[in-house]
User: Fold these one by one.
Assistant:
Number 1:
Amino acid sequence: MKIAVAAWLMTLIAGFAAAAGKLEVYVIDVEGGKSVLIISPGGQTMLIDAGWPASPNREASVDRIVAMAQAAGVKQIDDLVISHFDVDHMGDVPQLASKLPVRRVFDHSEFQSNPKLDDAQYKAMIQGEEERFRAYDKLRKKVGHTVVKPGDTIPLKGAEVQVLSAGGKTIEKPVAGGGAPNHECAKYPQQARIERDVEDNLSVGMLFTYGKFRMLDLADLEAYVTRNLVCPNNLIGDVDVFNVNVHGQIKGIAPELANAIHAKVMLLGNGSRKGGDPQSWPILRAAPGLEDIWQAHFTVAGGVDANAPKNFIANVDATEHGNWIQVSAESDGSFTVTNSRNHFSKTYQAKK
């Protein structure tokens, strides 16, 4: 059943009012696409990706993004980061900007595909994404646009955002806290590159730091590329929260990364029938240091064995939509995760 709009808005407003001085992260339910709203301790806003455009069988993600932002008292998006140009991440940015002003756009540069693939379905998909990219390109030129590279930082008042990957490249030197040899690398071979998934591996991946709190978001980087961030040395170090790449699809899951970063919490921005692959579950669940996995949706294919307990799932059946997951982080490294569906929350203490 759909959530009650009034209760949804009141809960969000209350949570936002209590969040001063914290780093707030909202994993918005965009049905297996991606959109994450971040409010810095200094009140600056960042939106990572814009979910899906409208289609005959799916509502536009813009409506959910705007509703959440407005309920939180957010009047504009200071920084819009489009991690890459697949349709479930690029969404409809011009429509979003018409409803919620966007001050600046960050991305990896230009849309890319694999011209060697002679497949009618692939070519049709690429044609649609190219058309959507042209509309996006006009908007980003109008509002202001920055191409980011590995090693760059994106200003976010009160916190730090480091770019770990972009345009198919990754950082070559460790960030603060990283650099230790990763013994997991010898246990697992590098996974194969998927030639049709060009844009996935161009994703802008970022590390968010607020005091002692650290959150990793690698967008849709697949396992072939994520290995470069942790092998032979773990250039990232430990994190507290890992927003799992590629919606938890198995093509993004590299054990050598999951086992090296010692995340206490993993977030799955999945849909009921996209992401959160059953094959991913045992790999993620076995990662050292992990306490809990929180999911946007119950994964139908996973059944009871490859899903979190219901308190940790924002949308638990096929007719339920729009509930979100909130992470509220303190500068001492402690943080609280809340499920908007039932207000269940759990606080995680800072690492020693």
Number 2:
Amino acid sequence: MAPLVRRTWSPCGHRPVLKQRGRHREKVSVAGALWWAPWRTWDEGPLGLVYQTLTDSYFNNERSAAFLEQLMRDIPEGLTVVWDGGQMHKGDPIRQAVERFRPRLVLERLPAYAPMLNPVEPLWSWLKGSRLCNAAPANAVELNRGVRRALNAVRNNPAFLRSVWQGSDLPLPRALLI
């Protein structure tokens, strides 16, 4: 909930002030997936974003499995999920989701300690460092509203999503390079 403080403008002679509540543990957790759909045209946008937020909660393996189910509903074709080895990406709920959606769903793990390969990491950096910097929301509900507003604004913007993907070291699929 504490704002990421960046340089900002203010009237000459007046220091900017960010008012925030202290000593509280409210939070917003976000799960997101950048997807590439080779069957879509450039007019439709072959890249997209699916996300889910939780207010005052966190993503464990059960909620991550539910997010996989949401992906399977939102994306009609086969799906290869590339993600890190976090605890929320392991366990029985994840294995059960993979079994339930086999062969449409395949999981691939990123190498350990390789966030630079994760195309969602530049999205989180943009969100925190650009859209949410210098913001001091009154509570987690207000923070959640700001997160959702920012992600909804870019979720179907192929040029932005392509630049986010290119911000990672994971190569774009060949079809996106031409």
Number 3:
Amino acid sequence: MPTLFEVGCGDKTVKLTLAATLLAVLFPAIVAAQQRLPGSYPLTLTRGSRLLVAAEINGHAVEALLDSAAEATFIDSALASELRLASDATVTGQGSGGKSFDARLIRGMQLRAFGITLSDQTVATADLQDVGQRLLGRKLEMILGREIFDAARLQIDILGQRVTVLAADTAPPGVRLQLHREHGVETIPVRIEGHGPVRATFDLGNGSEVLVGRGLAAKLRLLSDGRSVRTESGGGLGGEITRQVVTLRSLEVGGSIFRDVSAAVDTQPSASDLNVGVSILKNFLITTDFSAHTVWLERRP
């Protein structure tokens, strides 16, 4: 029976609420983490604030969008056909653009990135061409999800455009924040205009504004307190969507306060209270350790 899952990419996290799939993904990642070696790898920051990395699927080299809030890796359906990858299940997806689409699950895949090899992985396939054209201006073959974050301690320098695999006993610099999983994605504590702490999705796949869930936006009267409201287009898989955008007077992340922060109101029913992406996180040297439920943020000078 088809299972409904939610997917977005760009200014919405990629979500896959399939417990059996996630179990199939997580255990191999833990095993692979014991085999990886420290090293440093290039990271491309696009003009649209997307993060691209070199990766492989079954030995085939691809350029992948790095997304810490993606519960599973996605590959483009055309690439899956080219590689003759056979699926064993079909699911129905709901994109951040509001339109549903079909996706297929493929088991037994090998993923590789940052010198880390993950075997026996389950990935999903979907048509990523529209998303690629809108976000990158070219084709997108893969969205590399949280499997790679579960597998190793990663230090991510967005402006320096490097990802470094650290030894598990390395003491990272910066403010230590506890990660909590909510609706399948990792969240960090933040404060918005003095309110909080509020849980915010830690989303390196979000290359646009901070997102505010409609529930929190209503609670804080962000659309009705007299501040300026404008509209902008956004969305990922499922097509474009128009959102209302406001300016937050302050947003505190990792002990740093950001002023006059642009934030779009996310009206999706599953939206988290907040979603913090590259627009904010690029200001930090980031160290992630999903297996230890921890992230460190060191403010860049």
Number 4:
Amino acid sequence: MLGYEGLQDKRVVIDFKRDSISIRRSRRDSPGEGYQALPITLFRNHLLAVDAWVGHVRARAIIDTGAPSTLGNWALLEALKRRPEDQADTEIVGVTLDVEHGVRVRMPLVRMNNVRVQGAVMSFGDVYIFQHLHLTGEPAIMLGMDVLGMLDQLIIDYKTRELYMLTSNR
């Protein structure tokens, strides 16, 4: 696991097509044509956050490259007004292997600026991480590798506080 403290002047490139990750010093250079740039904020001083729309609901999206699955909180599920027949019970296993209960739901379109993710299935619950981050009262989503992996490439430039996404809209 890499902590924010060691990445403050770095650029992390995750290339899903080539199955590679590289870390180098940020030189503030443009990643090239076709990338969508999203400004990031440091939430709670170390988590990367971007603005997102999940269907018609605006949500705070935490970029969580260490999570295998995307997770939403109850406030987001309630705002989406999903019906019980749209949901299936699930267990959510945390990083400490604690098990919490939630529901799995097929998501509407997820948008971050011009980047669109369709067909994602996501778990919802007010699990400990949302409580710890004080994110139970507003729609929030922790984007895991299941959704991030739908991109061709993800670049996190910690120095410039920008996130670049490349997708071939597959």
